[in-house]
């Protein structure tokens, strides 16, 4: 009797231990770039672009699972596999574009943390950016000294904090159900809405998360007594749970803005949106929102630095200390903060840059996960492969449309 009860419990416990990598990758889906894009979309277009977030999150579940599967089955990250297969000139060119994407990611995350510190304590933006970078160094030190599991625990705790911070306002001002349902119908309203849709997509399906997740799964899932099918099952659960949470937070931000910010002056910036939220829903909600933004910036900048180090290691076969890389990649963000350019505008543009980086991560991932020689029996089934190519095609088509509207009008 005892064995029949303990067996399932032990099995569930082992399954729980296998969870975690997707929750670290999910931080990339709720970073400050998401805040800027989602608040701007809700304030300017109401519920119009809810469907973009729903579609982007569905795409993200498929993409992140494929990335994790590559790491689980091959024991190598996506950058490592590409580094082995690309000739040196192509490998260097690929690394350059990946680093540009990583720089755009870092810009969004440091600026987000700086804005949060300014909202909470009146800290100047440049000093706030430096503080964000220093705290992220401490978070990365946890990974260096205590290992990946401890790092995953810290990042997941921050994910919980930002979830509360960004969703609290909906309890005080629920969205319009009819308008929310109408927002699920795919449609756009001119070039500005296309720009925002691309920004939201870039903020949701993030290239550095695609590169990183394969590395996280590779390093986390050391379980010799556990079969690969069981690990992949745990991976699917991990991805779905993490991205449903992240997607819900993103949608909550847009709904909060759609319900409270249309017609309010100054809501084209995070600071203005925060002031409007606090003025409409009260200072407590305003503080919770700012705390959520701070947790988002601190967690995502640490994860971004981790991803950048893995990209460099896999493609260039050069291992740079996470802490050293953090210091170097912090500098461009601090310089841009010193220029006085609107931080919110920098955040939105950074997400568009990320959107252009998605095909470079996604297309190789789709091709590699169908490779029989590489993944054997765990390669993508035909249906999965078709869906993956459809997702890649939609992303590329949106980027081409964005280019046309931006430069041709």
TrEMBL record:
<feature type="transmembrane region" description="Helical">
    <location>
        <begin position="386"/>
        <end position="407"/>
    </location>
</feature>
<feature type="transmembrane region" description="Helical">
    <location>
        <begin position="345"/>
        <end position="366"/>
    </location>
</feature>
<dbReference type="InterPro" id="IPR001046">
    <property type="entry name" value="NRAMP_fam"/>
</dbReference>
<feature type="transmembrane region" description="Helical">
    <location>
        <begin position="239"/>
        <end position="261"/>
    </location>
</feature>
<dbReference type="Pfam" id="PF01566">
    <property type="entry name" value="Nramp"/>
</dbReference>
<feature type="transmembrane region" description="Helical">
    <location>
        <begin position="281"/>
        <end position="308"/>
    </location>
</feature>
<feature type="transmembrane region" description="Helical">
    <location>
        <begin position="12"/>
        <end position="30"/>
    </location>
</feature>
<feature type="transmembrane region" description="Helical">
    <location>
        <begin position="154"/>
        <end position="173"/>
    </location>
</feature>
<feature type="transmembrane region" description="Helical">
    <location>
        <begin position="320"/>
        <end position="339"/>
    </location>
</feature>
<protein>
    <submittedName>
        <fullName>Nramp family divalent metal transporter</fullName>
    </submittedName>
</protein>
<keyword id="KW-0812">Transmembrane</keyword>
<feature type="transmembrane region" description="Helical">
    <location>
        <begin position="92"/>
        <end position="115"/>
    </location>
</feature>
<keyword id="KW-0472">Membrane</keyword>
<feature type="transmembrane region" description="Helical">
    <location>
        <begin position="45"/>
        <end position="66"/>
    </location>
</feature>
<keyword id="KW-1133">Transmembrane helix</keyword>
<feature type="transmembrane region" description="Helical">
    <location>
        <begin position="121"/>
        <end position="142"/>
    </location>
</feature>
<feature type="transmembrane region" description="Helical">
    <location>
        <begin position="193"/>
        <end position="212"/>
    </location>
</feature>
<keyword id="KW-0813">Transport</keyword>
């Amino acid at each position: 009797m005892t064995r029949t009860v303990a067996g399932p419990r032990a099995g569930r416990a082992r399954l729980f231990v296998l969870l975690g990598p997707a929750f670290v990758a999910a931080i990339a889906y709720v970073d400050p770039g998401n805040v800027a894009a989602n608040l701007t979309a809700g304030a300017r277009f109401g519920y119009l672009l809810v469907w973009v977030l729903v579609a982007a999150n569905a795409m993200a579940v498929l993409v992140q699972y494929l990335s994790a599967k590559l790491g689980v089955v091959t024991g190598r990250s996506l950058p490592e596999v590409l580094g082995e297969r690309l000739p040196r000139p192509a490998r260097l060119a690929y690394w350059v574009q990946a680093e540009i994407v990583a720089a755009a990611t870092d810009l969004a995350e440091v600026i987000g943390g700086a804005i949060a510190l300014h909202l909470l304590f009146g800290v100047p933006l440049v000093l706030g950016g430096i503080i964000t970078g220093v705290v992220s160094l401490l978070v990365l030190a946890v990974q260096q000294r205590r290992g990946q599991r401890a790092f995953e625990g810290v990042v997941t705790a921050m994910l919980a904090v930002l979830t509360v911070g960004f969703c609290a306002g909906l309890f005080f001002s629920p969205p319009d159900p009819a308008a929310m349902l109408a927002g699920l119908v795919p449609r756009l309203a001119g070039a500005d809405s296309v720009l925002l849709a691309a920004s939201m997509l870039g903020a949701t399906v993030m290239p550095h998360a695609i590169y990183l997740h394969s590395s996280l799964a590779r390093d986390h899932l050391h379980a010799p007594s556990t079969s690969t099918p069981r690990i992949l099952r745990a991976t699917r659960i991990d991805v779905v749970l993490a991205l449903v949470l992240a997607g819900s937070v993103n949608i909550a931000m847009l709904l909060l803005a759609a319900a409270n910010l249309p017609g309010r002056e100054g809501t084209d910036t995070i600071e203005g949106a925060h002031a409007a939220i606090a003025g409409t829903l009260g200072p407590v909600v305003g503080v919770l929102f700012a705390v959520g933004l701070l947790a988002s910036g601190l967690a995502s900048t640490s994860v971004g630095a981790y991803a950048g180090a893995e990209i460099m290691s896999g493609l260039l076969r050069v291992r740079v200390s996470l802490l050293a890389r953090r210091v170097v990649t912090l500098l461009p963000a601090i310089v841009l903060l010193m220029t006085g350019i609107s931080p919110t505008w920098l955040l939105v543009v950074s997400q568009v840059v990320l959107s252009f980086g998605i095909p470079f991560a996604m297309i190789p991932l789709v091709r590699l996960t169908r490779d029989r020689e590489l993944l054997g029996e765990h390669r993508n089934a035909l249906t999965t492969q078709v869906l993956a190519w459809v997702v890649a095609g939609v992303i590329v088509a949106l980027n081409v449309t964005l280019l046309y509207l931006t430069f041709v009008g």
